[in-house]
């Protein structure tokens, strides 16, 4: 009888182990304050160490339901210098000149304004510019990266600030993705604008790789702008330097 009881106990223990392995306990929810501190530190680290960069950006504008044939397109080379801002060299244009002039050129002009010294800090995704709330569920996966997801609300309304979600790398706080609604319409004629941008780490720092903005209005109908970023060249502060 004792032998049977012992065998039964072993089977029970073994079954419990298998169940635990098959259905692991949910990961402990991290401290919201700790996650936000890591985001602020990552933003500051990028600003201090990325002294300059160049990249090539391709803009495509789609109208109505057609997202196959762009109504206008533009490829530009971007140069960023810390303390100076961004400048653009247009490499190629295609499609509607009206959309290029009244649609794409204002986007480039806005990016130049946003990145001027004194302005750029006001567009960072950090706790100084956004109210952040860590979403439940612990670590989430996005394209193979372990992330935390936060609900973000801008502290002020601006065309380049969103009300939505911020995904950050769970290991270092670097931004991975943003997704939401622009807190302010870029034009009185434009409707609500939904914005999404994805980032990859280049030389250890998050750089935009893909973006999409969709708006709709009674006057202009549906418009989608897609931006692809590539060919990055970063100028970084020397290791151990105090930028």
Structural features, described:
- By secondary structure, the chain is α+β, with helices and mostly antiparallel strands.
- The chain has one domain: Clam (outer membrane lipoprotein receptor (LolB), chain A).
- It has three helices and eleven strands, in the order ααβββαββββββββ.
- Strands 1, 2, 3, 4, 5, 6, 7, 8, 9, 10 and 11 form an eleven-stranded antiparallel β-sheet that branches.
- A hairpin with a 3-residue loop joins β2 and β3.
- The protein is globular, with a radius of gyration of 23 Å.
- The N and C termini lie far apart (76 Å).
- The relative contact order is 0.16.
**CATH class designation:** Mainly Beta
Which spans of ≥5 residues are poorly predicted at pLDDT below 50?
1-26
The gyration radius over C-alpha positions equals 23 Å
Helix content: 10-25%
Q: Order of SSEs, N→C?
A: HHEEEHEEEEEEEE
Number of strands: 11
| Structural domain count | 1
Q: Could you say which overall geometry the principal axes of the C-alpha atoms support? A: globular
Strand content: 35-45%
Mean pLDDT: 86
Tell me which CATH architecture applies here.
Answer: Clam
CATH fold title:
outer membrane lipoprotein receptor (LolB), chain A
Main beta-sheet annotation: 11 strands, antiparallel
End-to-end Cα distance: 76 Å
| Annotation field: number of helices | 3
